[in-house]
## 1
Amino acid sequence: MLLDRRRLVAGGLALAGTALLPLSRAGAQEFPFALSQAEWRARLSPEAYSVLREEQTEWAFSSPLNNEHRPGRFHCAGCDAALFEAATKFDSGTGWPSFYTFIAGALGERQDTSQGMIRTEVHCANCGGHQGHVFPDGPPPTGLRYCINGLALRFAPQA
């Protein structure tokens, strides 16, 4: 079958268009807490939706949670599942809330090959909401740095 110019251009445009679609692992995997995309949009601010559901990253040093040091827990901003104890938070100097560990069972991981590098993405195990990434340059006792978007979190101070 020969390709004419019209089919070649149409095929190229279709292929280019798919590259612009957000890659959301949340739709590919089932989680205990699930909403439709319309329900997520109604529940979240546009900025939080972009981070939690479209895997975007907030600007460094933009989150007020960088300066949160009270006892308590950090919860998923999407479904309110508890993810991190405040006692595990540390100042990494990177501009995002950082933790050296998480509450057991609260996070899931997957390989992220976007942006020309291989990283480990972390997401809420309850709703699949993108939280950030984990890196092997954190403090003891784990040596890990969970670099988390503040927009993906809600802080609950200890009562």
Note: The longest helix spans residues 5-19.
## 2
Amino acid sequence: MIKKLGVALSVIGLSACTVGPDYRPPAALPDGSTTLIETDANSNIVMAELPAKWWQLFADPTLDRLVEKALRNNTDLRIAAANLQRSRALLAEAGAGRLPVTTASASGVRQRTTSSSSASGSPTGGTSPVTLDYFSVGFDASYEVDLFGGVSRSIEAANADSQAAQATLDAARVSVAAETARAYTLVCSFAVQAQVATDTTQLQQKTLDLTERLLSGGRANRRDVDRAILLLEQTRAQVPEFEAERRAALYALAVLTGDPPANADAEAAACGELPEIEAAIPVGNGRDLLARRPDVRQAERQLAADVARIGVATAQLYPSISLLGGVSLGATGIGDVPKGDSFGYSIGPLISWNFPFNNAARSKVKQSEAVADGSLAQFDKTILNALQETEQALARLTGAIGRERSLDKAVSASESAAHISRLRYDYGADSLFQLLDSEKERAQSRAAAAAAGANRLAAQISLFKALGGGWQNSPPVNEIQVGRD
């Protein structure tokens, strides 16, 4: 019997197949479709390889430390890391489908029943209780023959899911690194803008003092004093707003690094100048971009998983064969259990089949195919979005750099004009109105230049985020487990 069963299993193994489509990665875009056209418009961009830790291009030790801290402690990364661990556990569960399922059991039962009896010489029958003890131990095993590849497809899907979860964690690292750098640079830029407003306020305070002295001497009127006060207070009103935004960015930075706002970083709070990249920014090329971005990898792995699930659903249309077997020892006395005549066994196949005309099973195949079609569309969308985001970031950076350069020149011109106007006023060649007007233009140009520097810095961070770097060689996430060391 066992020999015949082994021969049958060999035949089944040789005839086994894997149903459903085999996954093939989508075709790559033509070379011309991945060209980053905006790189030609910006002399601050080079086609060199993007460094894994792009934030080190700013040469700011505080920024380096904060990004590394965020990559270890950020709560979004802890969530993504936990999801990755879950997906790996699900992969192990799917892999267990290739192994037999075993069950060991032991029992001891005392059962009391009644039986009919006829007493000798008694015209009527009677009942008497019967007590029976039964002790047994057993071991059962079952194994599903993966005749049509349903288990193999399940493992294939779970493996792709695990790889997609890894890509999701890497994408979260990209976002956390960029948002940490953005929050830090906001702290610095708002501090710079607050300082510019403070410096301008001090200059305008001197003009107001001069105007009030002229009023006392009869060389100015009240309207001149009011105009000087107007300029001063308009500039002064900007300082508390910039300071508030600086503190708000500091609190956001603390949370990004895994700390409460009350533990905001002291070194970040002391930042008073914009971080700068002295060299041109390396961006690589379009193909490197698509290979580097984790969201593209995640979408591709999700597509692979959904294609494999078509095979899982298709396998349900075919017969399922399981091999069942068990051995047991049982006797009415516990001392008799080990004896040879208490031995029993069972072995044989179990065949079950949801016939192909089962509409529910066929509908599941259609559902899986539709999900895979949607995943393919999502993959294509992710590719296009990656190229779009990068081109947009490059275009905005080009515009921000050009704006900053022009406004820096405007600051130089306004400083010169204000200086000349003051000299001419002192010699009586210009009126107080002309002096106040030049002071106003200088204040506006300095504020605009400071804002332009902040915008240019934000555009650089957005470009680095679009380029998809920052996840390579990241430190491990500090995973805090519930109720476990």
Note: Confidence is low (pLDDT under 50) at residues 7-15.
